[in-house]
Structure formats: structure tokens, C-alpha cells
Amino acid sequence: MRTATAANSRTTQAASLGGMKQALAVAFSGGTVMGMTVVGLVLIGMPAVLLSLVWYFGSEPDVLSATVLPIVSGFSLGASSVALFARVGGGIFTKAADVGADLVGKIEAEIPEDDPRNPATIADNVGDNVGDVAGMGADLFESFVGSLLGSMILAISVAETAEVGLRPLAFPMILALAGVAASMLGILLVRAGGRGSAQRALNTGTFFAAGLSAVLSVPIAFFVLGGHTFHNGAAGPWALIGATVLGLAAGVAIGLLTELYTGTGRAPVRSIVRSAKTGPATIIITGIGVGMISSLFPLLVIAVTVYVSHALAGLYGVAISALGMLVTLGIQLAVDAYGPIADNAGGLAVMAAYPREVREITDELDAVGNTTAAVGKGFAIGSAALTAIILFTSFREQAGAPEVDVMHVPVLVGVFIGAVIPYVFSALSMNAIGQAAFTMIEEVRRQLRERPGILDNRERPDYARCVDISTVSALKRMLLPGLIAALTPVFVGFFGGIDMLIGLLVGVTASGVVLAIFMANAGGAWDNAKKMVESGEAGGRGSEAHKASVVGDTVGDPFKDTAGPSLNILIKLMAVVSLVIAPMLRAYWG
């Protein structure tokens, strides 16, 4: 986040001096630091914990299953806990400032976005880094850790039932290292040639990294497994290669589908722009419809991935597919963290009164950044779904519940409880933003009313007061959603039983993934619809359609930047907490 903050002003300066090519290079380099730091810390932390425990306890499969991996799950729990703080707290911080800055500044005071006369503009720009850089980094750090942990737990069950030793345990780690190398080479290919080429440059690097990872999985699988087979003797190296490629393809497919529904100039976003001509009500209705329909195809991709990977290599195959989706996390996260850097670069161009052509470059980077952010959120949701599935499966293994009857009443009760939890969690997050935004709006109005010299550039707004409102609101109002996520599995597990907890995890995963995709894509589509209006569509800036698009974007901001992405953490944290308490539940229920 420190590097991203420094990259903000440097991107603005690069746009002024070197144009699109230099601006993209600086912004993407800032995002690369987050991407490579996350994968580096995972691949240092997890092996360090695992090897130290193996050195102390031994490496026999039964020791690994009963002692080592339950302790390693604590590493994942730590990652989940901090991710919840960064995602929910950061989301409340940034959206309280964003809503206040937009509604009072752009609609009531009719001053441009990021204008230094707006008291909330500094809090808004700080929030972009807090929510979208630190929040997304913590989110995907947790996914990567969870997928590695789940694949290792399931690898032990493979080792106990097939004569393959600990080879399946080594495969995820080596594959993850290969993904880092592929991501580094993909990062070197991200080069823009001029206007209109930023999205193409980012896609080139991402697709290259995914393709290279798929190629590298072939020698790795044969090196690790050799001629050994597992999963009833029918699965060997080619099964692992197939599961890896399937996960990579699923990640790319979810990204392309997200871009289809949220990208500037795409038909769904154009339908929202058209609806802006008839006011805020129709733009909100259309945006909700786009978000709802957009959840269909990513869910089908996830379902096909789970089904085919299980057919290839059992539950271990599902785990490898989840890891395959995350294997190029280094460049995926770099592309995502580039977005808020480009956004803040545009804000600084306005604050520093740079020429219009500089703002046009940063606006194009920002529009691409909106799409990459939406793609990143879709990628995070898809990876969260697969990660939660393998963590849930690992919990079932650790809890000693190999067979579950879906018509068993405790399981059904758990499913219903789990299905409603994402809605309760999202409601608390949205209400927290609403309450914080109300305080922010009142503060911005007060400053503009009591200090009229602000609008004439004769007085300096009290930026610190707005930052303080966002900070206090985030810290206070993230507590209850966090407690629900962490304590619900414990309560259900000890009072309702293992079967009810399994039902809870099924319900929260299915409900949470659909709701998260809907919220993230609806918010992204509203955001880019506003960008299209501001670029001249439907009457351009200052028109009634522009005001309607600002309202739609303001409604979508909490959807895409707080409630939606936070559901990733919810479903993974509940699965991780269940996994951590699995040995206790097994002993408690006999």
C-alpha cells in the first residue's frame, strides 16, 4: 500500500511527461509490488510453518493428518482474520468517503470529482488504497493460503489410500512456484503502445502467464508423480495436468465474463447508460438486472470446473483446480492493484490542475482500471468459491464425517441458516456504510455552508475531519459482521452438531457466491456507465443523465467495494474456522 501511494503521483507525472505508455508502466509497476509481495509471503510463510512442524513431529501421513496440518490451519485462520479486517473495515472507510464526496460535491455543489474544494476528497482517495489495494491483497492472500492448505489436507488422504507416498503433497507447492515464474514473465510483457492499448497490454500479460503455467504443469506433474496413480488407480499425471488447466481456464473465463458485463462500451453497460436518460430509478433497476443475470455464467463455470476436476482426480482434483485458478495470482493481483493507482492518479491531476490531456490519459487508465478491478473481484469470488469447497471438504475429512445425508434434518436446518448469513452480513456492511456516509454528508454540507470561502478557493477544507469520520466508522462498525463470521460456525458446530455445520457451510457457500457476483458486477457496471456518460454519452457531464449515473454509481459503490468482496472473506473464514475446530468437534461428538 505504501508503494501504491507513492505510485499515484508518479503516474500523474508520467502521464504529463511521457503519455499513455509511461503512465501505464508506472501504475502497473506499483500494482506489481502488491501482486508479487502476496505470493512471495505465502510461499515463504506456508513452507516455513509446514517444514518446522514436520521437523518437530515427523512426516508420517498419520502424523501429518492428525497433528501437523491442523496446526498449519491456524496460519490460514490468521490470514482470514486479517483479511476480514482489511476488506470490511477498508470497504466501510472508502465508501463512506466516496458516497459523501459524490452526493454533496458532484450533485449538490456541482464541483468536479476529486476537486480539492470538496472536504471529503482526500478521504476518498485514501480509501481507494485502503480498500482496493490492501483489501484485495489480503483477500487473495487468504485464498492462496486456503487453497494450498486444502490441497495439502486432501493430499494426505490420497497418500493414505494409494501407494504414492507424499508426492501429492509436493505437487501444489511446486506448481505454485512455477506460477510465480510465469507471472514474472507475464509482467514483463505488459507494455502499452498508445491510446486504447492499456486493456490489451494487461490482457497480453495475463493470458501469457496462464498459458505458460499450463505448459509448465506437464513436466511438473510427471516429475512429481512419475508412473504412480491414485483415485482408484485411474488418475495419474495427466489427471493433475487436466485439473490444473481446468482451474486456469476457469479463472480466465470468469475474468472474460466479468469484463463482458462490466466493461466500458459493452452491451450491458450501454443498456445502463440508455436508462440514465430517464432518471435514477431506471438506472438502478437496469443495473440490478445486469448484476443478477451476470451471476449465471460464472456459476456454471464454477460448477463445470468442480464436476470435471472431481471426475479426473477426485476431491484432490478439485483442490488442484482451485490452486490452478490462483497459480498466476502474482500478475492477477498486479492488474487489480493497478486500478486504484490509476484512479488516484486522475484525482491528483484534477487537484494539481494539470492540462486536460493529462486528465484524459488518466481517465482512460481509470476506465480500464474499473474493468480490471471488476475482473479482479470476479476472479476473487471464483477462487473463493473453489477454496471454500476444498476447505469444507477438508473439514469433513478432519471431522470424521465421510458420508452426509442431504435430507437429514440437521443438514437442512444448517443449509437454511447458511443461506441467510450472507444477506445478514451484507445488510450489516451496507447499513454501516449508510450510517457513516450520513455523517460524512452532514460534515461536508456543514463545511460548505459555514465556510463559503471553500468554494471560492479562499479557505482550505478540513480534510482531516472527514478522514477521521471514515476511520472511526470503519473500526466501530466492522466488529459485528466480523463476530458473525467467526462465531457462527463455533455455535452451530457445538450446539447443532457436525451435520448441521456441514449444512451451514454448504448454504453459506452457495448463497454467498451468487450474492457476491451479483453485487460486484452490478457495481462495476454502474461505475463504467457513469464513466461513459462523463465521456460524452447520453448528454455528457452536467446533464440529467449524468446526475442519474452518479446516483447509480453511488448505490453500486458499496455493492462492488464493500459488501460483495467481503462475502469472499465470509465464506472462506467460516470454512477455515470450521476446519480449525474440527478435531474438537470430532472429540466432542464422539
Set down the secondary structure blueprint:
Elements: H1 2-57, H2 61-108, H3 121-161, H4 167-188, H5 198-225, H6 237-262, H7 267-276, H8 280-294, H9 296-326, H10 329-351, H11 356-399, H12 409-450, H13 463-477, H14 479-496, H15 498-534, H16 544-589
Number of helices: 16
Approximately what portion of the residues adopt beta-strand conformation? under 5%
Low-confidence stretches: none
Summarize model confidence as the mean pLDDT.
85
Radius of gyration: 24 Å
Helical fraction? over 70%
Shape: globular
* Count of β-strands: 0
How does the major sheet shape up? none
Number of domains: 1
**Through-space gap between termini:** 47 Å
| Helix and strand sequence | HHHHHHHHHHHHHHHH
**Structural class, please?**
mainly alpha
Q: What does this protein look like?
A:
This protein is mainly α and 590 residues long. The protein has one domain (2-589). The protein has helices at 2-57, 61-108, 121-161, 167-188, 198-225, 237-262, 267-276, 280-294, 296-326, 329-351, 356-399, 409-450, 463-477, 479-496, 498-534, 544-589. The chain starts with a helix and ends with a helix. The mean pLDDT is 85.
Short description:
The protein is mostly helical and 590 residues long. 85% of the residues lie in helices and 0% in strands.
Task: Note the main attributes of this structure.
590 residues, mainly alpha, globular
